[in-house]
Amino acid sequence: MNDSQRPDPPAAPARRGLRSSRKPRYMQVADELRDELRRGDHPVGGMLPTEAQLCERFGISRYTAREALRTLEEMGLIARRRGSGTKVRSAEPQVRYNQYVRSIDDLLQYTQATRFQLRHSDRLVADATLAGWLDVRAGTECVLLHGIRYQRRMLKPFCITDVYRRASMQGLPPGFARVEDAMRALIEGELFARVGLVEQSLSAVALDAEQADQLEVEPGTPALRTLRRYFDPKSRILLVAMTLHPGDVFSYVTRYERSDVMRGV
Predict the structure, then answer these.
(1) End-to-end CA gap in the chain
(2) What is residue 164's three-state secondary structure?
(3) Dist CA 247 CA 226 (whole Å)
(4) Which residues make up the CATH 3.40.1410.10 domain(s) of the chain?
(5) In terms of C-beta density within 10 A (0-12 exposed, 13-18 middle, 19 or more buried), how is residue 214 classed?
(6) Which CATH number fits domain 3-88: 3.40.50.2300, 1.10.10.10, 2.102.10.10, 3.90.190.20?
(7) Is-contact 144 162, C-beta < 8 A?
(8) pLDDT tens profile 70-94
(9) How far apart, in whole angstroms, are the C-alpha atoms of residue 243 and residue 47?
(10) H/E segment holding residue 209
(11) Residue 126's pLDDT is what?
């Protein structure tokens, strides 16, 4: 068994910097290092202690040290390069969302992993474009929920979300007097159980001044526009959601596998 696979030695309560907690030890170490980054103990552009130094300081194995560093790297706090050490990139976690999609379940994890903050709701008459999205006649009364999505426990916005639906209670959760309230309950908790099909289209756009202000970026910033149409198991439209993500905080990853590849070739 090599050193990287060796289990952690017994806890050393007198070690400086490792607080008592029921969290996994790599998370304890990551939390401690993140606090130090926030305090400026390790300035941006400088180097973080080596794995060996972390092992010595916290009384942990190489594996645990690497997992702690991996956690910080995923937050955008550090950058690791073999042979060059670990460089500090930021004192605060970077708001970045990578979505890996292989099924509808994966797609709907997006709503469960984020927090939706409603800014306002409106009633509007469907024009030709909106009518096409919702499969209704032009002139049909529709409802719009406009809001911002945040990654949970993060304060910086990373997505504008506009949710549309015709002004009807059909297919929405019961017990609500207003379509707006039922729509909000659907997108915040019950969408996963009600969706049978999702259609999605992606396009590149530039954020206008109002959109940029809401996302706290510069006007003209490149963005990814996602249009999703959510259907119930009977192929009836539940709602349509259009989202805007600044290009530098969101990536969308899909995986395709051939079904006709011969085994053993």
Answers:
(1) 34
(2) strand
(3) 12
(4) 97-254
(5) middle
(6) 1.10.10.10
(7) yes
(8) 888 877 788 887 777 898 888 877 6
(9) 37
(10) helix 209-215
(11) 94
| Structure-token pair, residue 75 | 């937050």
pTM flag (> 0.85): no
Token digits of residue 164: 């549309």
The token duo for 234 is: 């009977």
Report the CATH fold assignment for 97-254.
Answer: Chorismate lyase (3.40.1410)
Which range (156-170, 212-226, 247-261) has the least confidence? 247-261
What's the burial of 105, exposed, middle or buried (CB within 10 Å: 0-12/13-18/19+)? exposed
Strand 85-88 and strand 114-125: the pairing is unpaired
Tokens in use for 94? 């970077």
In this predicted structure, the answer to whether residue 169 has a pLDDT above a threshold of 60 is yes
Q: Tokens for 257, please give them.
A: 């596998």
Q: Is the dihedral of CA 105, 110, 113, 116 positive or negative?
A: negative
For strand 157-166 and strand 237-246, is the pairing parallel, antiparallel, or unpaired?
antiparallel
CATH code 1.10.10.10 region(s) in the chain: 3-88
Is-contact 200 186, C-beta < 8 A? no
Phi/psi of residue 92, nearest 5 degrees = -130, 145
Instruction: Identify residue 184 by its one-letter amino acid code.
Output: R
What's CA 120's distance to the chain center, in Å? 22
Nearest alpha-carbon partner for 108 in 120, 100, 117, 119: 100
Half-sphere exposure of residue 177: CA atoms within 13 angstroms, side-chain side: 0
Q: Half-sphere exposure (CA, 13 Å, Cβ side) for 35?
A: 8
